[in-house]
Design a protein that fits this description.
Structural class: alpha+beta
Number of domains: 1
Number of strands: 7
Oligomer: single chain
Helix content: 10-25%
Strand order of the largest sheet: 3-4-5-7-6
Number of helices: 3
CATH architecture: 2-Layer Sandwich
CATH class: Alpha Beta
Low-confidence stretches: none
Mean pLDDT: 80
Radius of gyration: 16 Å
Shape: elongated
Distance between the termini: 8 Å
Length: about 140
């Protein structure tokens, strides 16, 4: 299966999170090549998300079939969220949104390969008005 098919499936799953849709527009996009969020998107309505393909890693090849290689396709969902203050962060819905994204993706299954695995998340940017989280996902397939 092509990498693009995995990206489309992951983007579709993230798009099911209702908070990313406002006024009939879904603020979920994609990028290929592990590019960072464009700093000019500071005025982008939040919350928003990007799907980024960050590469793959070889897990093994079997001696019985050296032409078949098991790989992990690795992706990041970058979540751009509002940040006003620590109290709102803890009691508000910002962090709950991260759980909703995980629930939408984890265990869903693309046409080929294993189910999506959630591998963790990290806060990568914190400003006076916004925060950026990276959520790592992978799917196992054979090529």
């Amino acid at each position: 299966m092509s990498i693009g098919t995995y990206i489309q499936h992951l983007e579709a799953q993230v798009s099911t999170v209702a908070a990313f849709t406002r006024g009939g527009t879904t603020f979920v996009g994609l990028t290929v090549g592990a590019q960072n969020i464009d700093p000019t998107n500071r005025d982008l309505p939040r919350p928003a998300a990007w799907v980024v393909y960050i590469g793959d890693s070889v897990l093994d090849s079997t001696p019985m079939n050296p032409c078949a290689t098991t790989i992990s396709r690795n992706f990041v969902v970058i979540d751009l969220l509002d940040y006003t203050n620590d109290t709102d962060l803890v009691s508000g819905t910002q962090l709950e949104l991260l759980d909703l994204v995980v629930a939408a993706v984890q265990g869903s299954e693309p046409k080929v390969g294993s189910k999506w695995a959630y591998n963790g998340q990290a806060l990568t940017e914190l400003n006076a008005d916004r925060m950026v989280w990276e959520q790592d996902y992978s799917v196992i397939t054979t090529i």
